[in-house]
Amino acid sequence: MRKNTTFAVFGAGNLGLAQAGHLAVQGFGVSLCNRSAKRLQPIIQNDNRIELSGSLSGSGRLQLVTTNYAEAIAGRDLIIITSAAPGHRVITRDILPVLRPNQALLLHPAYMFGAIEVRQLLADSGVQDILIGELSNTVFACRANGAQVHIFAIKKNIGIAYLPTGVDNRAIETFKIIYRDYIECYDTVLETGLLDLNYMLHPFINMMNAGLIDRMEPFDYYHCGVTPHISNVIEAADRERTAICHALGIRGYSAIDLMKRHYPHQVEKSTSFYEATASNVAYKGIASPDHLYTRNIWEDIPYGIMPIISLGKALEIETPVMQAIYELCRAAFGNDWREEARTLDNLGLIGLDAAGLLRYAQTGL
After folding, report:
1. Would you identify the CATH topology of the domain 198-357?
2. pTM of whole model > 0.85?
3. Which domain of life is it from (predicted)?
């Protein structure tokens, strides 16, 4: 493994701190960049160190902690974007002037069509030689407090894919070696997007527990927020997602399949999605949000649910449950997210059939 591979991590939320901290603990050179200086102050005050506990432990010292994008990526081999999905386009536009051809990008995670959107932004600016990788889910289940990050679990079998496919990159190969016990290669970025469990859970849990959240009555988000009946609704929506997978000829893991693959030791004996959620110790202690309009809505609807609905329309597959949760959110929040959503229409991919979509996911052309 090449320890001289260097990384820039964008985003100082739970995941970004876990990612930067773990790479630093492993002995790699890491810079951490965040738009807001406030999120960086606890790390700077801790001598640029991130302290990990739980499933991973150690103290990792970062080479650089900054709000300056050019400083953060200068000389870095792999740029890992851990921001919420709306930040992908913002960060990409901001780093465009200082990107170099030998650098690569990794969206951790990407949500639907993440690498495709980023590649289009790069192409529109005349940048052609940047490899874009994406992960299907977060490697770490974690929560951060200042410079302290607790890792509840390291997930297994997280998918990684690239756009374009078939291109080698030393930095991404190093990343794959570091996380070889936790990630596996997928064929295309369509697969990584469609096999993301997050957007299949969060909007349903939020909206079907809206009364509790609105009244600020805290509960264990997963263990109490997913009841047998809520689980039934999630599984009904999930069958729509897997039908789209089958229509595209890609692996169609169900929600319970994904849960078992990501958390094999925690839920391997579960026989239903409700049971798997209720018994997953990695979810223990994760509290409900203190308000309803969180990233579980403003990220998961336009970057997960709406792209899936648009795929269903293109492939003539009905998605009534996903359409219902979208309409419920649209009514509740007075927002339709149509301008920002990563739909086929917004990405200029209307008219492509299954073969055309797969080809585009391989080449970006």
Report:
1. N-(1-d-carboxylethyl)-l-norvaline Dehydrogenase; domain 2 (1.10.1040)
2. yes
3. Bacteria
